[in-house]
Design a protein that fits this description.
Length: 286
Amino acid sequence: MENILEVKNLSKSYPSFQLSDVSFTVPSGSIVGFIGENGAGKTTTLKLILNEIRRDSGSVTIFGMDNIKDERKIKEQIGVVFDESYFHGEFKAGDIAAILKRIYKSWDDALFEDCLRRFKLPKNKIIKEYSKGMKMKLSIVSAIAHHPRLLILDEATSGLDPIVRSEILDLFLDFIQDESHAILFSSHLTGDLEKVADYVTFIHEGKIVFDRSKDDLIYLCGIVKCDTADFQKLEKSKLIRWRKNECGYEALVENREEFKRKHPGLVVDTATIDEIMLLYVKGEKA
């Protein structure tokens, strides 16, 4: 499978923060969820990928091209959506199309119009009168109307109601049906990523903690819940992370079914991405 995006040993230093040797890939035909707490380095990484800030070291390759040397060619083929609309409030959707068709050679008026109808976005209403959900839909429609091969999304569904988020997630799934497309989706809403992501990349304190298949995470990993007495009997080297709570302990294990066979008397639940992230950040390890 071809990688549309390859990030290798990417580093960037600031006085109070350091991004260190960040590496991950975005394969074609996939959605990669990019997760981490506030300040972990997600936005810095996205800015480095987009060449909005200069890297100290490492490399970013998009469509087989260097993101600095071939920036113009690359940006013709990507769409970017941030957590809020940056279109001027006095513009109308038609004004956005008129501007962007002069920027992108592959701008598709018919696709733009079709998406406006699909999402019930009024073409002649000024943007400041749009709801937040409508503004986000317009941003996404504008990002895909020039037929990009890669979408880069930074909290694109944050603050939206469940119905709007569902519509947008469906659009993302449609987008990657063509195996030549892919999405890098940075989000705090891990429930959305559980629905659509193929892979999950977790960054913490400027370093990649894991870069794994989503199915491996939520179907293979497990959360063990037990009292103090049972926890003391467990072999700590078999636990990825553990954390004490008011009822005893909870611990993350690599293989839920295997652990259940070895410890039939213990409760081992499936693990959500939120729980996995929390245990990695707050938990202890052997």
